[in-house]
Amino acid sequence: MIKISPSEKQFLIDGIKQNMRTDGRSRLDYRAFTVETGLVAQTNGSARVKLANNTDVLVGVKVEIGDPDPDFPDQGRLEVRVECSPSASPEFEGRGAEEMNAILSAMLRNMLQNARTVDWASLCISPGKQCWIVYVDCLVLDSAGNLFDALSIATKSALFNTKVPKIEVMETSSGQTEIEVSDDPSDFTRLSTASIPISVTLAKVGSRYIVDPTIEEELCMESRVTIAINSKGNICSIQKGGVSSGINPSEFNKMLQHARKIGLVLLKELDALLDKEENNDTSTKIGFAR
Amino acid sequence: MKLEASADVIRKLHPLEFYKRFLPEGIRPDGRNLNKPRVTVISAGSLTTAEGSALVKLGSTSAICGIKAEVTIPADTEPQCGKLVLSVELPPLCSPNIQRWTDSVEQNSSLEVQIEDILLKTNVLNLEALCIKDSSAVWVLYVDVYILEHDGNCFDAALLSVLTALTNVKLPEVEVNEEQIVSIVEGGSTQSLELNHYPIPLSFCILDDKLLVDPTSEEEELSSTCFTIVYNNRGELCSLYKPGGKHINDDILEECKQTTLNRTEHIVKLMKQANEAKK
Amino acid sequence: MYAPQIKSVRPLQQSDKPSKFIGDDGKRIDGRSLDEFRSVFMRTGMVKQAKGSAYIELNNTKVICSAYGPRQTNNEFSDKGMLNCDFKIASFASKQRRKKTRDEDKEFSIYMRDALEISVNLDKFPKSVVDVYALVLEDDGSALAAAIMCGSLALADAGIELYDLVGACSAIKVDSHIVIDPSSTEQKYGVGAITCAHMSNLNEITQLTEAGDVEYSTMVEFVNMCVDGCRKMSDKMRQTLATEHLK
Fold first, then answer.
1. Is residue B163 part of a domain?
2. Is B165 a domain residue?
3. CA nearest A282: which of A50, A33, A36?
4. Do A238 and C210 touch (CB under 8 A)?
5. Residue A110 gets which letter from DSSP?
6. Is residue C21, in this structure, part of any structural domain at all?
7. What is the pLDDT of residues B22-36, one digit of tens each?
8. CA distance A138 to A59
9. Which site among A34, A186, A258, B219 is 20 to 30 Å from A124 CA-CA?
10. What is the DSSP annotation of C69-129?
């Protein structure tokens, strides 16, 4: 576990009180981030996001044909798995990563499936029998705080990058259905990712709250609220964490407003980046050398 | 400082000594005679999501059993037989000695084996009755028992809850169409399961050379041996389980058999009442 | 070889989606008004072996909870106590049989701990742990909220020092109306499932989770309705504790 001394903590808290954080940001400033897509050849879509060159996450998306959820037979299925690599932080050694993996994947699941921001009905192939299963596998390579937002941005980018092969459903003479997957790699459809949200994490430190906390700031925070915003400005999921303080309902409303404002700006930025990535010639990718 | 200790303190520090003050008087700390089982309460059908359910309490030991029915393909070797999948769980909430779900794995599987042996080997249930269509569709019953409080003798509570839940099962009427798809007949009748007999258990333990009926968890821990006898309502011996511990002689065994036999009628009556109360 | 194709009988139950969640009279399917709870039943002291325990019924949603401790931990020294929560849904608790281990249980265990830990005076039991175990016997919606309240009651029953009781409440949007304490059908087809835990005396939200695409204004309304609901529930919890312990 990373630990900071009480005086270091006080320094951070006092700085936040005066709207000056240790890395020069004000309370509601977001760090710069970079996005690269299509890095992992074996996946249907992938993306790597870096927040201020330190928080580093990689998301791979695979699509497979499988059985639908019996509760929702006419929809596709989502499987999210987050793995915090022990190399990212000593905190993630052994069983330490388990809880973090669970809350991170819960947040992504809530944002994508439970919030129904992806058109899951379009991923149904044959109701009750066959559907597309979307596997979202996330790997945290390095952690410098705010894994929540980094993962949400990377997931949206990876899904944006995802190519679903075209298929043809045929009925055989015996009444059985058969599925033929097109073997032409350029024959694919895209997922509709326009309404997929990204999350904005606010951390309450002392009596103030800050956006996009660094790892040191995460150690001082009393509670965390991760709010997912989509391009319509709607709120798609909320997850509160942290166990040392509650939040007053009126303060909570203010946090919602701020998160919404910041989220919309970030989304615009991300859309521009993704468009650029998409139009770039793939051969110019630098990938992990960057 | 006063050196007087209250009864509770003695009970914690010298539990065996504490019991030795009671047992020769023919009475137990909870007020029961040595040969008296705890008050048994049986209720059925309290869970609406399960096809059959039952809650059994032996004093404060309580077990809840829920049965879910699903349709499956029968095994090739037994094309007409339905399936029964049993699981028993001692969740951490039931006892201070279990802190994690994994702590009770051994106890769970030993209870599962005992109950499954009695249900299937003494033919309590005709698995053929669970057949929907020969070699293509049968019912599978998932019988899940959770011990909600473990104050000794959870085997008796678990077995009784399984039996009561089985008698409480209502299977919907189903039909199989040409495409081999099974569907529920809307507005159809429901079918209950017939049990061939009711194996009623009673557990005993020997503590300080005294025979105690229906032990609590404290008595189980202090005892030199525990054993269980199961008789059915036709007066036939179904199971006798004594996993190690101190030897017992025939006289004691005979006495226990008689006690168990005498109890069967009362318990079967309770079970029937529980099921009728729900109707 | 000819393999018979058997489908589970379950898909037929898909027809459980009602055409209308809110009737013309403004009432829900089960006859409740929009901000009405189901009949609530609370009790403490169900599990005698435990230090404290509680049982809650929100009509068909049934949760049992017990608290043990403070007991010693093997973790490294800490001058504050720890709260450990375990949330589990019984395999027979819902219409569809559940698998034994699911991601959801772990997720909800964390939510439950976050909701309750703020209310516990952890300074009172250094280097030890209090365990709270919740088992959902039947899930007809709002199981997490019920488990949080049940856990709070169990902690109180165990005599663990608390700053406040934690009330909890779920809400969801169906047919463009917000309803609180949703049933499992409402929960399955509604949008924006929110669960909120709140300490009424301190007026602090201890835990809040939401999933579903809703407008900002709806979210504000969600939070307000949930906080109101939590207040009602914590009053009920206080009454329960008072009557059970003054018996």
1. yes
2. yes
3. A36
4. yes
5. I
6. no
7. 999 999 999 999 999
8. 4
9. A186
10. EEEE--SPP-SS-EEEEEEEE-TTSSSSPPPSS-HHHHHHHHHHHHHHHTTB-GGGSTTEE
Please name the residue that has the structure tokens 């032990």.
B215
Q: Residue B103 burial by CB count (10 A; 0-12/13-18/19+): exposed, middle or buried?
A: middle
Quote the minimal CA–CA distance from B251 to chain C in Å: 34
Q: What rounded mean pLDDT belongs to chain A?
A: 88
Strand A55-66 versus strand A130-142 pairing type: antiparallel
Closest to C8 measured CA to CA, from B138, B204, A119 = B138
Choose among C115, C114, C113: nearest CA to C197: C115
Using left for φ > 0, alpha for ψ between -120 and 50, and beta otherwise, residue C155 falls in alpha
Q: Domain total for chain B? A: 1
- Give the CATH number, domain containing residue C61: 3.30.230.70
pLDDT digits 0-9 by tens, A125-169: 888 788 999 999 999 999 888 999 999 999 999 999 999 988 888
**pLDDT value at A188 more than 90:** no
Region A205-226: what's the mean pLDDT? 91
Judged by CB atoms closer than 8 Å, whether chains meet at C199 and A246 is answered as yes
Give the residue on B whose Cα is nearest the Cα of C90: B146
Length of chain C: 247
- For tokens 């006798």, the residue is B240
Task: Decide if B136 touches C, using CB distance below 8 A.
Answer: yes
Q: How far is B72 from chain C (nearest CA, A)?
A: 7
Tokens representing C137 are 């016997």
Domain that holds residue B167: 34-278
Please state, in angstroms and rounded to a whole number, the distance separating the CA atoms of residues B98 and B151: 12
Read off the pLDDT of each residue in B251-278 and give the average, rounded to a whole number: 92
Specify if C12 maps to a domain: no
C52: containing domain: 30-245
Number of domains in chain C: 1
Q: Which two tokens stand for residue A223?
A: 């509670």
Burial label for B12, CB within 10 Å (0-12, 13-18, 19+), is: exposed
Sorted by where each starts, the structural domains of chain A and their CATH numbers stand as 16-279 (3.30.230.70)
In a domain, C16, yes or no: no
Q: Residues 6 or more apart from B58 whose CB is under 8 A from it?
A: B37, B38, B39, B40, B153, B156, B157, B214
User: Which of B152, B178, B200, B127 has its CA nearest to residue B38?
Assistant: B152
Question: Please, which pLDDT band fits residue C8 given cuts at 50, 70 and 90?
Answer: very low
Q: Which of C205, C221, C228, C231 to mutate to test the interface with A (most CBs of A within 10 A)?
A: C205
* Lowest-pLDDT choice from B76-80, B103-107, C86-90: B76-80
Angle between helices C143-157 and C103-117 (to 10 degrees): 50
In a domain, B60, yes or no: yes
CB C60 within 8 A of CB C39: no
C-alpha distances (whole Å) from B144 to each of A243, B86, B87, B278, C2 are 35, 6, 5, 20, 33
To which residue do tokens 């819902």 refer? C94
CB atoms within 10 A of CB C247: 6
Which among A98, A114, A241 is the nearest to C114, CB-wise?
Answer: A241
Q: What pLDDT, in 10s, does the model give residues A76-118? A: 999 999 999 888 888 788 777 888 999 999 999 999 987 778 8
- Asked, for residue C13, whether it belongs to a domain, the answer is no
Average pLDDT over residues B226-251: 92
Which residues, at least 6 apart from B262, have a Cβ–Cβ distance to it below 8 Å?
none
The first and second tokens of residue C65, run together, are 């909870």
Place A285 in a pLDDT band, splitting at 50, 70 and 90: low
Tell whether the torsion through CA atoms of B233, B234, B239 and B245 is positive or negative: positive
**Is B206 a domain residue?**
yes
The angle at the Cα of A81, spanning A76 to A87, to the nearest 5 degrees, equals 160
- Note the pLDDT tens digit of each residue in B142-164: 999 999 999 999 999 999 999 99
Cis peptide before A73 (omega within 30 of 0): no
pLDDT of residue C3: 40
**Measured between CB atoms, does B48 come within 8 Å of chain C?**
yes
